[in-house]
Amino acid sequence: xxxxxxxxxxxxxxxxxxxxxxxxxxxxxxxxxxxxxxxxxxxxxxxxxxxxxxxxxxxxxxxxxxxxxxxxxxxxxxxxxxxxxxxxxxxxxxxxxxxxxxxxxxxxxxxxxxxxxxxxxxxxxxxxxxxxxxxxxxxxxxxxxxxxxxxxxxxxxxxxxxxxxxxxxxxxxxxxxxxxxxxxxxxxxxxxxxxxxxxxxxxxxxxxxxxxxxxxxxxxxxxxxxxxxxxxxxxxxxxxxxxxxxxxxxxxxxxxxxxxxxxxxxxxxxxxxxxxxxxxxxxxxxxxxxxxxxxxxxxxxxxxxxxxxxxxxxxxxxxxxxxxxxxxxxxxxxxxx
Length: 337
What we know:
337 residues, alpha/beta, Rossmann fold, 2 domains, four-stranded parallel β-sheet, 38% helix
């Protein structure tokens, strides 16, 4: 996993994603030109995706050649996922497991316990950053690592000492998500070489969509009246960094954590100083604290969706549509011209 420190408002260089990274993680039992999908029902590649952002990549790139089974069902908060022994055992039957290490402890444990051979950890497909575990606004700031993509050698001890933790929510940055898409495409090509040409084509099409989404965000968030937005938890650090915004989370990277009274008081002050208009809440987590803060400060509330799952409450049918809804919400809250 590539991990580097960040300073809010500093420029992120696009991480170069080597296809070999995905291929190195993908241990395939297929020999020669045979496909992992050989002998499967309908000849489709059986892909298990840990949660929605992984599912979207697999479906968009795999197209008609894959059958995607999400471990996290609609409406379930991914961090809360629990797997039964039967589900863990069934992972070994998948042709490919696509997951994000560090986000779902139950999945990480299942990967270790199961007999699944072919797996891709999306955390290896782009650079992950160290974000403050308490909030998303960097008041002092840590400089970027000297080398882009530098391996973080200090482990958890160094992270805890700095009050930081590796942030897994990279999919909310379309640029980083496109990097992961490239890696997933390479993995599918290796797992199912018979359809490699289609996977290449689908990957290119998805990357083009994500490039367009990035351009929409860049254009839409120019000239805002304020750069600061308040969220239920700090899932939007990569998005904030990409578009020169400041995220203030009621809680840190863990959406189940409870904010301290001191944190709530601090946010009231931030809202006043930074002319914040809106407190954002999420679709899969409780909105109680966010709405309480809004009531105490006289602010509006709205949804900013971290896209950890799609439900009937989502403002869109897929990743692209919900991200555009997020853009509209941010433009309104930040006073974009």
